[in-house]
Amino acid sequence: MDVDRELEPAVLTVSEVTRYIRDLLESDLLLRDLWIRGEVSNFSRSTAGHIYFTLKDEEASIRCVLWRYVAEEQTHLLADGQAFILHGRVSVYEIQGAYQFYVDLVQPAGVGTLYLQFLGLKERLEREGLFAPERKRPIPPFPRAIGVVTSPQAAAWRDILHVLERRYPLVQVILAPALVQGPEAPRQIADATRALSQETDVDLIIVARGGGSLEELWAFNEELVARAIYDSRVPVISGVGHEIDFTIADFVADLRAPTPTAAAVAAVPDAQEYKATLQRQRESLAESIQRQIAGEREDLRYAQGTLLRLSPRAVSERYRLRVDDLGRQALSQVEQRMALQRERIRSRTLQLTTLNPKATLERGYSISRKLDSGMVVKSVAQVAKGDRIGVQVTDGQFEGTVD
Amino acid sequence: MSEEKLSFEEAFQELDKTVQRLEEGELTLQESMALFERGMELVNYCGQLLDETELKVKALLPSPGEGYKLVEYSDEEGIS
Lengths: 403, 80
Hints:
The structure holds two protein chains of two kinds. By secondary structure, chain A is α/β, with parallel strands linked by helices. Helix content of chain A is 44%, strand content 22%. Chain A has four domains: 14-111, CATH 2.40.50.140; 137-269, Response regulator (Rossmann fold); 273-317; 359-401, no CATH class. Chain A is built from twelve helices and 13 strands. In chain A, helix 5 packs parallel to helix 9 (260-267). Chain A is rod-shaped and about 215 Å long. The mean pLDDT of chain A is 88. Chain B has a domain at 8-52. Chain B has two helices and three strands. In chain B, helix 1 (8-24) runs antiparallel to helix 2 (29-52). The radius of gyration of chain B is 20 Å and the shape is elongated. The model of chain B has no long low-confidence stretch (mean pLDDT 83). The chains are: A alpha/beta, B alpha+beta. Strand 7 (172-177) of chain A pairs parallel with strand 1 of chain B.
């Protein structure tokens, strides 16, 4: 509005003033984000599917709009004459110059204000991305140190300690004590979580509280706690209340466990499983080495066989057999030859016996030899007068001279 | 083994690798025996850690003027 106020009164168009009013309403913190309780009347649905109605109490009424895309998401259906608590923002419908309540959440009037606060905060933090699935960090498989935010007086702490002791005593536990209900609780839980994250080297944090009423669990629905969990350097497991209880802390946590005990179970591996695995590893080791030893033994046996076949002893053994063989052959040949010789000698002896001159001598013959030459005298031409001769007869020899 | 002070995780991972290498084979008997012995050592070490370790618990308390400090926590006496 480009108007010089000192010179003349401002004159605005209807559009200008309407937009001004709209901006005013839309910039108001309360009107931007509020719950209104009232009774529905004049309910109507347009052909486009949008819902128009009036919310009223004894003294006032306000026109309301529920866009089709919002209407489709509601679990509670609006109906004339019934009381509801509606969440939304107030703005201006410029064409009609009317302010309206643009509804984005419908709750039956029976719910308490705590629940409405819960829904409001949940919606806001969700929009901001605190619950985003891609933000969830994995729980370390072998945590070395775990921080626990809870009250040391409560059963939850006993349960957690018991589970950790039984499942995985290797882990170190750091308790960051905090009141878990009452007005001090949110601040203490948030501080304890931040302290564990910033002042220690834990690699996992458990935020836990045993079961209780909605009011008793309320601390875990506070924004302070949600922010501390979100800001944590390490993954956070929430274990608040019972199975059915969902808190804001559960939505922000990297992992939501239904109870404190379940949170501890989710935080550590199970030593019993590892013992079974160790036993299997032990067996694998033994099998492997036994298999290899059996293989090596087989190889050894084979090599031994080869070696024995090629050893000098085996070779000499084979030659010995061969020598024996040859020996036997040689012997039999020698024996044959000797027998032959013996036979020959015998027949010669016989011959010799037959030819022996002695036999002739015995029959009265004699042998004459010239004494000077020893030549046997077979003819008179061989001797001359005066030659000395020896005459052999069967029993000796005598000498004479040729006349 | 004792001087190395392997964490359970480290020991368990080494054991896993040892078993795997041994199962793959293609090692000399001497290498295999060394791996086997190492493996058994690791099995016993891990088992011992699981059996003999006791849960250590401490408490982180706000300390006026010093931020936070770690103190011993005993099961019977609580925070000391």
